[in-house]
Structures are given as structure tokens and as C-alpha cells.
Amino acid sequence: MATILVSSPLAGDAVQGLRQRGHEVVQGEPAEGLGHDGLIAELERHPGTEAMICLLTDRIDEQVLAAGRSLRAVANCAVGIDNLDLQALRARGVVATNTPGVLTDATADLAFALILDACRNVTLGDRVVRAGQWRGWAPTLLLGPRVSGSVLGIVGFGRIGQAVARRARGFGMRVLYSSPRRASPELERELGASFVSLDELIGSSEILTLHCPLTPATRGLLSRERMLSMRKGAVVVNTARGACVDEAALVELLRSGHLAAAGLDVYDREPHVSDALKSLPNVVLAPHLGSADRPTRERMAQMCIDSVLAVLEGRTPEHVVT
Ligand code: DGY
Could you give the CA distance from residue 153 to residue 158 in angstroms, rounded to a whole number? Predict the structure, then answer.
């Protein structure tokens, strides 16, 4: 029977499935996972560890793999895989997997929550009410950009980008998207989405939402220059990865009023969020909650368990990324 390292407690009780099959589960206690160094320490303590379930915040690099010489499987409890050194994994013959598909709707829901909140000041209004600063209905109180009928720009048109487009139809929005691959004419018609170049998308959108993976090509994609080319009063929403956006420039342009608002779920150096960002009233800050509805997180955990079991039992897991 195998030893399996799980970086943190997972949602639901899928981990029991490993124990029921007689495997030894070594589980990290911190809710946020053991992290790079914590994983190394556990792998050194349990040198025979054959499989690992890690979080998107656990950097899996050559150092971790060197500590886990017996590793055969790494299941990343996320769809994003920017925390995995795929080359190092491949070089060591370790099968790595992720959890696509199950978190599509949850992440699109959260993107829409941020679109609505950033535009319509829900969180800011909540703060005003709780602080006892609300003096009554006023024609000019907390006015924000309009959501219904506005131009929504979607960067990245994979499963999540498409799910956002589907929701945008209900708000009567004009949907533009940019993606390395153009969707089929049928899908474009179904979603009422028009394909444009990235620069056109950025220049035309009233609300711009990011749904691309973090890769060398998308790191810093929303640069200062690009944000300057956005329409005055536009809104930026990011549920993808923080490093896709130049955070300092975003702060500058939110402060100057060039951008009206932002809704962020992801940051460049999580869980660090800059004081500059925190000081702005026109930004909604969520703590990376994209996939955080209970059934989704339970399904992500189950997918990781299934992947690990597949490798241990000599089968090919469903979502291999190496
Ligand atoms: C992912 O799975 O990559 C998401 O960021 C989790 O919320």
C-alpha cells in the first residue's frame, strides 16, 4: 500500500477513499497547505511517498521532486498549473494532473459577482451601512457603471470564459472575446460573442474580465500601456491569475480615475495584497474564491483522489498535464 501526502485538509471526505483502500495518508494541517518547504519536510520525513495532492499555492519544482524520489503522481487541486514545473515532472517521469471542468461554473459565478460588485458598489455600500454613515437615499449616492447592456470583453475563451459569456447574455451585454483560438461559428452564435484582436478587445470593453491561464505569453498581459488604452471609466475583473495584470499600474489607473473600478480574486504574490490596493475604495478584493462553492471543491478533491488512485493502480488518469 502507498503513502500519499496531501498538502492540506480537502473539502468533503474523499480522502477517506484512500484510507479505505489501505493507503497511508499523511495530511498537512494548515488550511492553506504545507507550501514548498513544508512539502519538502514531509517528503523527507516519509521517503517512500508515492503520490501527492497539492494546492495551487504549492510550488512543485525540482527541489520538491528531489525530496520525493518515490513520487509517481502529483495531483494539483486546481485547474491552473502555473505552480507546476512540468519539465521537471516529465524529466522524473511523475504523472501530474489537474481538475478542469468541475470549477467552470463556480469561477464564472464569482467573476460575475465581482463584475456586479465592482460596478454597483455592494461591498462599499455594505461598509457605509455598517459604519453608520448612511444618511438616507440620495440621488448621487454610490453611483457606478452600468452592467446591463454594456460591452463585456473576455480575455481567454476556454470553458470559464465561455461560461461568463453565457451569463452575460442574461444581462443583455455585448460580448467580445479574444483568445489564441477562435471559437466555432456555432458557439459564437449560441453565446452571442464576437471574436476580436486583444488590442481591439481592450480598447472597446467597458468591463474587461480575464479568463486565461498564466503562461509566459499572458504574464503581464494587462500592462500599463494596455490599461491606458482602455476606455475611460472601464472596469477590470480578474479571476485568472494575479501575474496577468500589472498590479502597480492598476492601482495608479484606479487612483487617477482612468479606470472606474476593479474586482480582483487573484494577486501577484498571494496572500500578500498591497496596501495601495487595499486603500482604494473602488476595488473589490476577494481572497481567491473562484472555485469556492462546496460541491465544486468536493468534486475537485474527488478528482485528485481519482487521479492518484489511477496512477497507483496502473491506469492513466483522466486529466494528465505532463
Ligand atoms: C484554479 O483551480 O486554478 C482556481 O484558481 C482555483 O480557484
Answer: 14
Ligand 1: distance of its center to the CA of 149 in Å?
29
Q: What ligand 1 atom has the least distance to the C-alpha of 240?
A: 5
Which atom of ligand 1 is closest in space to residue 239's alpha carbon?
5
**Which CATH number does the domain housing residue 113 bear?**
3.40.50.720
Residue in the structure block whose three cell numbers are 467580445: 176
Measured in angstroms, how far is the CA atom of residue 89 from the centroid of ligand 1? 20
Longest dimension (CA), the chain: 68
pLDDT at 166: 98
Half-sphere exposure of 261 (CA within 13 A, CB side): 25
Query: Is 166 an active-site residue?
Result: no
From the CB of 56, is ligand 1 less than 6 Å away? yes
Q: Which domain holds residue 109?
A: 104-285
| Exposure letters 6-28 (e unless 16+ CB within 10 A, then b) | bbbebbeebbebbeeeebebbbb
- Band (pLDDT 50/70/90 cuts) for residue 265 is very high
Query: Cβ distance 191 to 164 under 8 Å?
Result: no
Three-class DSSP category at 9: coil
The response to whether residue 80 sits with its C-beta less than 6 Å from ligand 1 reads yes
Mark whether 319 is an active-site residue.
no
48-63 residue pLDDT tens: 999 999 999 999 999 9
Number of domains in the chain: 2
Average pLDDT over residues 155-170: 98
In sequence order, which residues have a C-beta less than 8 Å from that of residue 269 and are 6 or more positions away? 242
110 in the same domain as 87? no
The mean of the pLDDT values for the chain is 98
